[in-house]
Amino acid sequence: MTQKTDVLVIGLYATESWKHSSFGNKILKAADMRAEGVPITIVSEEHWVGHLQ
Questions:
Q1: Numbers of helices and strands, H then E, in the chain
Q2: For residue 37, what pLDDT band results from cuts at 50, 70 and 90?
């Protein structure tokens, strides 16, 4: 993920170990980037799919 990333689509994870996976790291990095002022949107997969139709 770079500062050119506009949207991060995340799926649903039912385990506590999500934050230790590469997916969890991307979510945390996106949240940090957003907190630093990078205009990145984080949306759920369900929300994203709903807007494709």
A1: 2, 2
A2: very high
Task: Give the tokens for residue 37.
Answer: 């002022």
- Residue 30 vs residues 7, 44, 52: alpha-carbon distances, Å: 9, 13, 22
Structure tokens at 15: 């385990």
Provide the greatest CA pair distance for the chain: 33
Q: Which amino acid is at 18?
A: W
Q: Residue 14 corresponds to which tokens in the numbers above? A: 């039912």
Structure confidence at residue 36 (pLDDT): 93
As given in the structure block, the two tokens for residue 34 are 């957003």
Q: Which residue in the block uniquely carries the two structure tokens 């506590």?
A: 16
Using an 8 Å Cβ cutoff, are 18 and 24 in contact? yes
Residues 21 and 35: their CA atoms lie apart, in Å, by: 21
